[in-house]
Amino acid sequence: MLPLLYMVATSLKTYGETVTRVSSNPFHPFFWPKWNNLQFVNYLVSWQEGIGSYFRNSVIISTVTTLGILVTSIPAAYAFSKLRFWGKNTLFTILLLTLMIPETVLTIPNYLTVAALGWIDSLAALTVPFMAGAFYIFLLRQFFSQIPNALLESARIDGATNFRTMISISIPLVKGPLFTISFLGFTGAWNALQWPLVVTLTETWRPLTVGLLKFMSEAGPESQLRMAGAAIALLPIVLVYIVAQKQITDAITQSGVKG
Amino acid sequence: MSNRIILVLAALLIIAGGVFAGGGNQTPAPTTTAPAASTTPAPTNTPVSQSQFSNLELQGVEVLFWHQHSRAREEAMNRIIAGFNDTNPYGITVKGEYAGGYGDIYNKMISGLAGGVVPNLVVGYQNQAGAYMLADGLVDIEPYVVDPEFGLTATEKADFIEGIYNSDYNAQFDNQRLGFPPNRSMEVLYYNADWLEELGFAGPPKTWEEFERMAIAATDASTGKYGYPISTDASNLFSLAISLGGDGYLNGSGTDYEFNTPEIRNALSMMKRLYDAGAAKKIAEAYGNQTDFGNRISLFSMGSTSGLPYYGSAVEASEAGSFAWSVAPMPTNQSRPVMNMYGASVSIPKTSPENQLAAWLFLKYLTSPEPQRAWTVESGYFPVRASVRNSLTDYVSENPQFGDAFDILLNSQIKTEPPFASYEEVRRSVSSTFNEILDGADISSALDRLTKEANEINQDMLP
Amino acid sequence: MAQRSHWKENLEAYAYLLPSFSIVAVFGIYPLFYTIYVSLFRWRIRKGDFLGLANYEAIFGDLAWLGVLLGALTFFGLALKLREQSLTNIHQRSQFRGENRLRLMTPAQRVFYGSSWMAFILGAGLLFFSLPNLYFFGDDKMFDSLRVTVWYSLGAVPLQLVGGLAVAWLLNRKFKGRQFFRVVYLLPYIVPVVAGAAVFERLFSLRPESFANQVLLGLGIPPQEWLLERRGLVTMLTGWAAGESGNTVLGYWQSWIEGPSLALVSILAFNWWVFTGYYALIFANGLSQIPKELYEAAEVDGASRRSVFFRIVLPLLSPTTYFLTLLGVIGTFKSFSHIWVLRNNLAGGAADPLSIYIFAVFYGRSRFGYASALSIVLTIIVLLLTVLQQRAAKDRVHYGE
Fold this sequence. Notes:
The complex is a heterotrimer of chains A (about 260), B (about 475) and C (about 400).
Chain A: H1 2-11, H2 15-20, H3 41-82, H4 88-99, H5 103-116, H6 123-127, H7 134-145, H8 149-157, H9 162-173, H10 175-191, H11 194-199, H12 208-213, E1 216-217, E2 220-221, H13 223-253
Antiparallel strand pairs in A: 1-2
Helix pairs in contact in A: 1-13, 3-7, 3-10, 3-13, 7-10, 10-13
Chain B: H1 2-23, H2 35-39, E1 62-67, H3 71-87, E2 93-98, H4 102-113, E3 121-124, H5 126-133, H6 142-146, H7 154-159, H8 162-165, E4 169-170, E5 176-177, E6 185-192, H9 193-199, H10 208-218, E7 228-230, H11 234-243, H12 262-276, E8 280-282, H13 288-294, E9 300-304, H14 308-316, E10 325-328, E11 338-342, E12 345-347, H15 353-366, H16 369-379, H17 393-398, H18 400-411, E13 413-415, H19 423-438, H20 443-460
Parallel strand pairs in B: 1-2, 1-3, 7-8, 11-13
Antiparallel strand pairs in B: 3-12, 4-5, 6-9, 6-10, 6-11
Chain C: H1 2-39, E1 41-44, E2 46-50, H2 54-60, H3 63-86, H4 90-93, H5 101-104, H6 107-137, H7 140-172, H8 178-184, H9 187-190, H10 193-203, H11 211-218, H12 233-238, H13 249-257, H14 262-288, H15 292-300, H16 305-334, H17 337-340, H18 354-364, H19 368-393
Antiparallel strand pairs in C: 1-2
Helix pairs in contact in C: 1-19, 2-19, 3-6, 6-7, 6-13, 7-14, 7-16, 7-18, 14-16, 16-19, 18-19
């Protein structure tokens, strides 16, 4: 957890201090800011620099993306694990293939697509491409597969449709993984840098990650601001996480399938 | 059966991709270029009697400007932009956008040129502009500069510092003017004046022999002090090379790279000598040279003049107490100092004739004396107009090092790095080779390898 | 009657798949075809001449040697298949562990077994000669970066699996500070990459006071250059280097023995820090699927904690483990941002995996066509690895019930 400590310590220095008091060793006094001169103002400056609105953007983007991921992945994963249909294996392999494509390759074609759709600089461009989460489908499918078919059969005999079965029986059984996926999806969107950089034209939807770049000016990195900004960026996720982790770990440590 | 269908689908998709991609092949509507600019080898101001732009409707035109400024500089730029928006008689509105660092902007432009959206004004180095031209993405600005109605008058033109004014003509593209300079910086030698005095020297080094002696004198293994943190940056090596005479990185005819020259070999040998003697060390982390200089651990540092404010803060906050310092021209064996001047210019991508003209008009405003003065004071960059020097007396008295630097600019011979599209990539190879040599590689053969590699890259990226 | 419900079920399934597949098709699949299309051209930002497979030829140099390499791979595949054949039903027939497999095989199976080894040796031989020659005739930067990729993957995946599992297991145990631990283990993953990298750059700086160097000092080792150090681990530990014999077949393989560069190891450290928590999260999910009754039953039977772990937990965890390994390998081969923020030019490519090289060709040299070809090659390599893993895992992964 040393790096996090470093981040906070640096965020409380003045620029001059970040340059002259350099050490990554916590036992060395240079690691720490001057205690009589803690620069909490860095956080304020960081916020005013626009971090505030970038923050809001990131929250919206991440939330929308997460919802999108859930809506698209759950049915797909369910279909792959529990339903029978023509072309199942082929489609699954295709899905697997998409996972193997390097990021750089995806950027330009997707950029062209987004441009053609007129989505440049819009919320859509920042959220929809991320919903194509083969990974989430895989993970969910994994866990759906572990639900014994017997359980579903009995529901079917009782007259429930596939849809109802999915909603009322299967989904509650994978609560843990669902929270996990939401968390990962949210974090993935929150931390994305390459794509938003290319796809945003103005400040309208600029997310936090791009905003943090602003503190790297060409002749001197204002580390103290960057670290303050990063700490701010971290904060909500940490809060969300602390709240959610109780849900996640409870769901995780409970047994998945009872007899 | 299903497999065959998949195959057919795949083939269809490839074709679809081709059709879609084929769209990206269209070049934007050609602009009217005055014939004069493309035929003259040397940039001359061929008089054009009538403006070719007077029929363009500028009312309500919007100009999108991508730059890399943040914080105080961004605010200053926004003020200038607001000034233009309020006072220009044409009804043009400019919008400035922070678009990332230079590298990010470059990547965005490449993506944009591949078929997306480009801004109306974009900052970039000369070699980046060259790269954009591989996709025919930029407008030749010269016709706008010489235009009788919208261009510069003879007096205005004369006010531009010559070395700066000429730096944007690109020989690889028929000497078109691919950018216009709003500001510049220089690679200079930072020195600790107090320390030099303690060591018994009268002033900053004028020759490289003096530099070596001073660096070694400052080195004391027991306290960890040393002379110079080695910048392995390609721009820095260029500065060293030109200070020893020679053409920098190009061969005699200026068409290919040539790194195995006596000047470069000398520069690298000197660095290696200092490194082996412990008088020069590798930079520990980004901007580590600022750290060491500020903490009085290194006697010298080399860097851009745009770093002056940052060095200033470092010295003030120094753990060792602040000290007298300033900047000096690079030591040299020539009669006048030879300085590497760099800085991003602003280029105009090809969009529509109206937007292009509007973009130029903003550039003209940006480089007029009052905005230049305001910009210099906020940013620490050099202005591009000599007359601005007179209005900077207050700023100079507060920042004497800036005054020193500016004087150096006005009294030196200026050279600039290769504006080739390939240079962006070649820079990386240069610093890698520099590091290899410090680690012990044979200088001559390493430079030959570098030359070969650089020219290979260059061949690939010729227009 | 059966036909009708069949149709309906198909349609329903497609409806379930529609939302995600429509996005995947546009943003995941279409780019692949677009890339293939671009790779057939000379494409410098704008489309150029049609080149056919020339880009691919440039990568491999001599297509003949590529053929040899493919031959090697075919032999490996053959070896696997033969081995499979030779080992069918073996487990069923053995009375106790450790019984000599050879004795249990039918004569036919023994032949298969022997042939599988021969095929393997043949494949290895072909590989031994083809890879260096491809390196010499083709794009050596590409093969160098491929080697870096392999080291990166080897360095990251096993350690993250073990580390992740350990952390996940710990999450279940009760101990002091458990709540704190639960919060903290995922933090590295959610820190923005740029910020985390900036911190790691400082931690691993070559300055003697940096954290990494201080640790070394404690161990009596002089300070290192970390992210700038292009020499391999083995070279640094033993002083042995491949020397000037670089241009021969033997020399090429010797350079492999040098090991991953210290720069790469530093970047790996960053990777471990970030991703161990992530692996732990997924493992924890997997652990949760194991019914508590099994634990209780084992306890009742008097099984030790260790054997519970190895006999019950691990096998039941195997789908998750397989899943993570698959993902881990794919992920490390593709990994870009986590390396990009730390790599330094001065290390001269010693820490640049293939993904970085592709990026450099794309943006640094604007050679879209060539970069696309490289990407397709990378995709194919990852594909092969995936298939390999699937085959290897067939017998080892136990699903639910």
